[in-house]
Design a protein that fits this description.
4-stranded antiparallel β-sheet; 215 residues; Lipocalin; 1 helix; mainly beta; 2% helix
Length: 215
């Protein structure tokens, strides 16, 4: 599922890097960087199987103003099992849609955002790298970082992070990239455990980054 946007319904449409969705030849775009991809194959630690081949999607804005996408996803255990999922969509500071890390359970952005102490902690993250082996049902596996209260990122990646005061916006800087997104408290999928999460996109490579604080 890839995003292009335009100021007019009839275009022109471009992704975050300025690429157009048009090809002049047959191209399999599974692993290409054209189009801002909302997610790829992934597996959180608490998932029994990974999720791949998300697609056949629809998006809508509900009566309460929240945006959602409905899509199917295949399981990565070779059974060709399918699930239908609904994830909420949020807008980054730069105006790009990003998908919540888990299925929706009625979560909402907090008015005025969260404090540094509310967001800091140990996180399981999934970086939705493009270069994975779809043919063999490969998935992106979690890495682990700590967001310290003094604005540092430590763990599998090192860098810095910050919140924009009075908003839900978060910026993370590591891996030579700047990721821009939002913070939102959610229930961890398949559980009733509430935790802090973030969803963001790389401004230089448009790769999606999800984070879920370890309970």
């Amino acid at each position: 599922m890839r995003i292009f946007r335009s100021q007019r319904p009839d275009g022109d449409y471009v992704d975050l890097l300025g690429n157009t969705p048009y090809f002049d030849r047959l191209v399999q775009n599974f692993n290409l960087s054209v189009g801002m991809r909302l997610m790829g194959g992934y597996k959180w630690r608490n998932f029994n199987v990974g999720q791949v081949a998300q697609g056949h999607n629809s998006a809508f804005v509900d009566d309460d103003g929240r945006a959602y996408m409905v899509f199917h996803t295949r399981t990565a255990n070779g059974t060709e099992g399918h699930n239908v999922k609904v994830h909420q969509l949020f807008m980054t500071k730069e105006g790009w849609p990003v998908a919540a890390p888990y299925q929706t359970t009625g979560e909402a952005l907090k008015p005025g955002g969260y404090t540094v102490s509310e967001v800091a902690g140990d996180y399981e993250i999934i970086l939705h790298e493009l270069d994975i082996d779809y043919a063999n049902l490969d998935v992106n596996q979690p890495k682990f970082i700590t967001l310290t209260e003094d604005g540092k990122i430590t763990g599998d990646y090192e860098g810095t992070w910050e919140l924009e005061s009075g908003t839900s916006y978060i910026s993370l800087h590591f891996n030579g990239q700047e990721y821009s997104g939002v913070t939102v408290s959610m229930e961890i999928e398949y559980t009733t455990i509430e935790t802090m999460t973030f969803t963001a996109v790389g401004l230089n490579d448009q790769i999606t980054l999800w984070g879920s604080r370890c309970p």
